[in-house]
Design goal:
CATH class of the largest domain: Mainly Alpha
Order of helices and strands: HEEEEHHHHHHHHHHEEEHHHHHH
CATH superfamily of the largest domain: Intergrase catalytic core
Distance between the termini: 73 Å
CATH topology of the largest domain: hpI Integrase, Chain A
Helix content: 40-55%
Largest sheet: 4 strands, antiparallel
Structural class: alpha+beta
Strand order of the largest sheet: 1-2-3-4
Strand content: 5-15%
Mean pLDDT: 83
Number of domains: 3
Number of strands: 7
Low-confidence stretches: 1-6, 365-372, 400-413
């Protein structure tokens, strides 16, 4: 270690000397600047100075990244700040925070919110959409430097061509920038605010999932059971129809959620669109499906496992099944509409709230919702029993129609 004799050293180090010093310890350059060589051989700069009456060591970075001249300049700036009554440590923290890029901030937000996503597909799409349409514009920029013009430049190309994607991206950018400000990485207003005023108005027609007329559901269930494909997929699809549940809710159903004795499946809040726990009554056929699936689970956590017992079926499983059945005119989600139409037209004395509760819909009227505390479980059990009885009725040969018009050469898996 360099020993101090007489006057304090002043710029005693040179670039050549910095590179040649191997001895572990602190080597003074002067004015509180030291080259620190760790026993491991790592080399870094520190500034030793007095900050508001206390002696503090302030790191200035690795020798590999910070040259001697830059270390002296930064040390002089921080020393001046300390003598003026400022806080160099706070200044260094602010500088490090400003160095965080938008991409890094988005990744941190994604990790922090990982447990709140309703399904793995949504979790993957959240970051993938930013990578595809936002990062190319300002992903590598400091999160503190992003302004409204940057956001506008990223959203304008897709605002009218992919309005739903653009709307979601706008919300995700806002969340990242809000997090950055709350975490001290950003100052000022959120750059997303006010963007809507300059973007063109886009009117979107209500999107409806293609659905099967409810009168054809029994024939479809009959065709589904007879179709040559994976037993797990067939059981899962029939379970989806009979419970009127959403695709992701069925695909990610876990055994711990099923209470066979109570004849109930409880979907946790983080997998429900409405964000609250939903109890689903299980009819007799649903219990048969559960029992059949148990034999396929092979000890895995998912009721309807994919190729690996530790993973659920792919979110493309139902789509590919419908394609092989040559039913590209309908969707798995559309069976919720089939159920809704059946209930409206055939169960006229069933209160609307019971049907909406069966679909896990939220009561939109705030006043009504304040008094609506029950999930009408027992009434829904009766309703779902009637839906099962209707859906699993053996169709007459003449009623099968195009539901059973599946080419003999259709692929199976």
């Amino acid at each position: 270690m360099t020993k101090l004799r007489g006057r304090h050293p002043h710029q005693s180090l040179t670039p050549v000397k910095v590179n040649s010093i191997k001895e572990a310890g602190r080597h003074a350059d002067g004015n509180g600047l030291y080259l620190v060589v760790d026993p491991s051989g790592a080399r870094r700069w520190i500034l030793r100075t007095v900050v508001r009456g206390r002696r503090r060591d302030i790191g200035l970075g690795s020798v590999r990244l910070v040259k001697l001249a830059d270390a002296r300049l930064k040390a002089a700036q921080l020393r001046h700040l300390a003598r003026s009554g400022g806080d160099p440590l706070a200044e260094r923290r602010r500088e490090r925070r400003k160095m965080l890029t938008f991409k890094e901030a988005a990744t941190k937000v994604h990790e922090a919110h990982a447990a709140t996503f309703k399904n793995t597909k949504h979790r993957a799409q959240w970051l993938a959409s930013l990578k595809a349409d936002v990062f190319p514009f300002f992903g590598d920029r400091s999160v503190d430097s992003i302004d409204s013009a940057d956001v506008l430049k990223a959203l304008q190309p897709i605002w009218t061509t992919k309005p739903e994607t653009a709307r979601r991206l706008k919300q995700r950018i806002k969340v990242v920038l809000d997090w950055a400000k709350a975490s001290g990485y950003r100052s000022g207003d959120n750059a997303v605010e006010g963007i809507s005023k300059v973007l063109p108005k886009v009117r979107q027609a209500a999107a409806h999932h293609p659905a099967l007329p409810y009168s054809e559901v029994p024939a479809f269930v009959h065709a589904l059971r007879a179709f040559n494909t994976s037993a797990s997929i067939k059981l899962a699809f029939e379970f989806l129809i009979l419970t009127a549940a959403r695709t992701s809710e069925v695909l990610e159903a876990r055994w711990e959620e099923v209470d066979r004795e109570a004849k109930m499946w409880t979907i946790p809040a983080n997998r429900i669109k409405a964000g609250r726990e939903h109890r689903v009554p299980l009819s007799a056929r649903c219990l048969e499906v559960i029992d059949a699936a148990k034999g396929l689970a092979d000890g895995g956590p998912f009721v309807f496992p994919g190729r690996s017992p530790k993973a659920p079926l792919s979110n493309m499983a139902f789509l590919m099944l419908l394609r092989r059945m040559e039913r590209t005119d309908i969707t798995a989600h559309g069976f919720r509409s089939s159920f809704r139409d059946w209930a409206a037209e055939t169960q006229r004395f069933t209160p609307r709230d019971v049907v909406e509760s069966a679909l896990a819909h939220v009561v939109k009227n705030k006043t009504e919702a304040a008094y609506f505390r029950s999930d009408l479980f027992e009434l829904r059990r009766e309703l779902m029993g009637a839906w099962e009885q209707f859906s699993t009725t053996e169709p007459k040969p003449g009623e099968l129609g195009r539901v059973l018009q599946i080419r003999a050469g259709a692929r199976s898996s």
